[in-house]
Amino acid sequence: YDDDILRESASIKCIKCDGFITKKNHWGSVKSGKWIAKYPERSSYHRSFRVPAYLTTNFTIYDIVKEYIEAKRKKNMHGFYNAIMAQPYERVGIKREDKDFKRIQTFTNYRVDPNDMIIPTSAEGHIIIACDVQMASIPYVIRYVTKHSSYLIDYGHFVDLEVCRDFIKKARFKNIDGEAYGISYQVIDTGHKAKKSDGVYVHIVKSNKLGITTFGIRGVDPGNVKMTGPISKTTMDYRKQKIPVYQISDKFFKDKLYNEIIPEASSGKSAWFLPSNLSEDYIKQLTSEQLVVIDDSTNEQGWIKKGKNDLGDCEKYIVAFSDDIHNRI
Fold first, then answer.
1. Is the pLDDT of residue 114 over 50?
2. Rounded distance, CA 16 to CA 14, Å?
3. CA-based, 20 to 30 A from 248: which of 29, 188, 233, 278?
């Protein structure tokens, strides 16, 4: 087909009136139309819907007809859908912004080599690593946590759990007085690899044998899991061994991280620190979740993800775990 001719002549025929929607009348017909729900009784529980692409301003008639022609060229085509998913508006309650994090960047963190990373304080504390198990990698965050402060000293990704254990075994961090420390605690998401060969449970057992006190951790909805508080400790049976696992209220600790800790650190009211050479990827991941109204009838709010948030989950795990260890100490 001739692309220039198609761009000018493409049209869609209305099955109701036999009229044609063309380049010239497309926007006018969209603007003058009225949206009517086909099943209005579903609005209380069905929050998404499909609309024909030609009834939006995101596509031109040319775009749709060209896509149809290209689709026809493929073998074994049984149908063609020009519908797109549409989402209703969301009333955003809270969203952390880049500036919140940039105001917290108060110390310089740098590596001389992988075994010489700096803790910018001499206060007594614990080095905690939190890992979030994903399909392709294992994101991690390492913080030096004292009774009254928390310092981000490293973060990144491991390719697998064996590399993670090797790192944990060898890693040493020096404070400003030159004293070196190893990792004190590890918390790791009991995700999809938990029961696979060399999965999370095996990793927890092997890490504990290396002398690194290790716990599984998972975020849950307290409405679906019986909990007496925002955090509880339990065990999972795996090959005749008891695997220690923390269950944490996902929403409670997201609220605490995003609505309390970060704003207070940004205003100088809390000692939650970030390095001055923090990457944009870290900030992007911690600004990818928004608190929105999820039930208009009760005004209930919940966190939704707008992008990758693996490092945010790691920070959430450290907040929960450090709360518990300092309550026990």
1. no
2. 5
3. 278
b/e sequence 235-261, b meaning 16+ C-beta within 10 Å: ebebeeeebbbbbbbbbbbbbbbbeeb
Please report how the helices 200-209 and 161-170 are oriented relative to each other, as an axis angle in degrees rounded to 10. Answer: 20
Please list the alpha-helical segments (H only) found in the chain. Answer: 3-9, 26-32, 61-72, 98-102, 161-170, 200-209, 250-255, 262-266, 280-286, 310-328
Question: What would the DSSP string read from start to end of 168-224?
Answer: HHH--EEETTS-EE---EEEEE--TTTTSTT-HHHHHHHHHHTT-EEEEEEEE-TTT
Give the DSSP letter of residue 277: T
Sign of the dihedral through C-alpha 191, 194, 199, 204: positive
pLDDT in tens, 211-241: 999 999 988 876 667 777 888 888 888 888 8
Residue 34 tokens read as 């009225």
Question: Helix, strand or coil for residue 232?
Answer: strand
Which residues lie closer than 8 Å to 132 by C-beta, 6 or more apart? 138, 139, 140, 188, 189, 191, 310, 311, 313, 314, 317
The conformation of residue 111, written as its DSSP 8-state character, comes to: B
pLDDT in tens, 279-312: 788 888 888 888 877 766 677 778 888 788 899 9
Whether residue 92 has pLDDT greater than 60: no
User: Per residue in 253-276, pLDDT tens?
Assistant: 998 998 888 888 888 787 888 877
In the beta sheet, which residues pair with residue 150? 145, 272
DSSP for 126-157? EEEEEE---SS-EEEEEEEE-SSEEEEEEEEE
Answer whether residue 45 shows pLDDT above 80.
no
